[in-house]
Write a structure and sequence with these properties.
Elements: E1 5-10, H1 28-38, E2 43-49, E3 60-63, H2 71-80, E4 85-90, H3 98-106, E5 111-112, E6 125-126, H4 139-142, E7 148-149
Parallel strand pairs: 1-2, 1-4, 2-3, 5-7
Antiparallel strand pairs: 4-6
């Protein structure tokens, strides 16, 4: 039996290094939601950070629980609320399209490689939560047991954008 995939979009950060709210840049969360819908993802949850950000987003929007003090805590809490496979997507996945989402959703427990050869934990596909290192202190450690998904044709879709200098890796849609 193939599990359904729920997408969790991370849109709660302050984007201080970028200098503006990444959740609205280049079509933002709304564009990512539309790409997920095109990829036949039926459950898309936006993790918005604080309650005051909830109204910034459409669809199923969850504010971060008070007991979550880190992104690792938020990931573990969120997946504990979901019975499906989970695909993580950061709001700064500016290059991600329906093709990348569809390919990641077909995988089992993986972290994709970006164009620079970096594993991207915020684009993890989680099928077996027992593979998570729950006592990890970093996201890379949390996903240490996950195999790498290396698809050179899609690697640019898995780039992340944390500061303005990263925008040189932005692909036109």
């Amino acid at each position: 039996m193939i599990n359904m995939t729920t997408v969790l979009i991370f849109a709660g950060g302050s984007s201080s290094r970028m200098g503006q709210d990444k959740s609205t840049m280049y079509g933002g969360v709304n564009r990512i939601r539309q790409e997920c819908i095109k990829a036949n993802i039926t459950r898309i949850i936006t993790l918005c950070g604080s309650e005051v950000r909830r109204s910034n987003f459409e669809g199923d929007v969850w504010p971060d629980p008070e007991e979550c003090n880190s992104l690792k805590d938020l990931i573990l809490w969120s997946i504990s609320q979901i019975n499906d496979d989970v695909l993580l997507i950061p709001c700064d996945a500016f290059n991600l399209t329906v093709k990348g989402i569809a390919e990641l959703s077909k995988q089992q427990n993986c972290l994709p490689l970006d164009e620079q050869g970096n594993r991207q934990p915020l684009l993890a596909k989680i099928s077996d939560v027992s593979m998570l290192e729950t006592d990890a202190v970093s996201l890379n450690e949390l996903f240490a047991k996950f195999p790498t998904y290396n698809n050179q044709d899609l690697a640019s879709q898995f780039n992340n954008f944390n500061q303005n200098s990263d925008l040189k890796n932005l692909r036109s849609q």
